[in-house]
Amino acid sequence: MINMFFVLIILGLFQGVTEFLPISSSGHLALLEQTDIIKNLMGDSGDEINLLINVSLHVATLIAVMIYMRKEIFIIIKGFLTGLIKRDFSNPDFLSGIYIIIASIPAGIIGFCFHKYIETVFSSVTIVLIFLIINGFILIAANKIPSKDRKFKEIGIFRSIIVGLCQAIAILPGISRSGSTLAGGLLCGLEGVEAARFSFLMAIPVIAGAGLLEGLKVVGGAYPSYIFAPVLAGMFTAIIVALVSIRILFWIVKNVKLNIFGYYTIVLGVSGLIIKFLIIS
User: Fold this and answer.
1) Contact 115, 172 (CB under 8 A)
2) Contact status, residue 233 vs residue 12, Cβ threshold 8 Å
3) Do residues 102 and 163 touch, judged by C-beta distance below 8 A?
């Protein structure tokens, strides 16, 4: 049981850090799960427990982003409902809700239809490392896009689709969801902080939808009683760390540059390939 506490806290830490910083949570977790220490600590935990852990950690990051963005969420929901009731479809908050929904559709469709296929085809560590390198170049390129002053409430339907397609690309392990949507937002003329805000808001329905689909598989499962306390510890860790990560990303987008994350994922990917093919082999 102590082993499971240790594993869940480590996984929660990585999930919290990598879900919202543009360095790919799927890529990092895929690499982490291949390490001997995690394999030994997890032992033969079984697919059901692994699925429970995966769903729980994603729910934790969903809780974190909803806590952090609670004011914006409340304003948008209120404006959306008011717009529906009064048929005021020009209400900026109503339009914000529409843009978030539209931006979530591409990832929802691709994730629902092709998640298992992509997960199978691109599950190798080598592919993950290559996509981490590609992710780095995406961030470096995004850093060169001139910042404009467009607010996300002004993004429009067409640009929402573009950012949504960028989010859909992140189903590939090693490609960061936040990184690709930030790049898409900047490409569409959003100011840096506004691109980050739109990225986090459009993450909510996608993470919630994915969590619901996977969560349906968890319901009714037979789990040993010892697993629930470690899972809660992992969730708590993920929530706290994710809140800090979101704050850090807003600060970096405003004060520094995204390319520091790009260089990091390139170095990680290249180093991983060197270790895999030159040292281990």
Assistant:
1) no
2) yes
3) no
**What is the average per-residue pLDDT within 163-192?**
92
Query: What six digits make up the tokens of 231?
Result: 């899972």
Amino acid occupying residue 37: I
**How far from 134 is each of 140, 182, 229, 268, CA to CA, in Å?**
10, 15, 38, 11
pLDDT of residue 22: 92
DSSP string for residues in 80-124: HHHHHHHT-TT-HHHHHHHHHHHHHHHHHHHHHHHHHHHHHHT-S
Whether pLDDT at 26 is above 90: no
Nearest to 64 by CA among 115, 13, 28, 98: 13
| Residue predicted with more confidence, 30 or 72 | 72
Tell the burial category of 170 from Cβ atoms under 10 Å away from its Cβ (0-12, 13-18, 19+).
buried
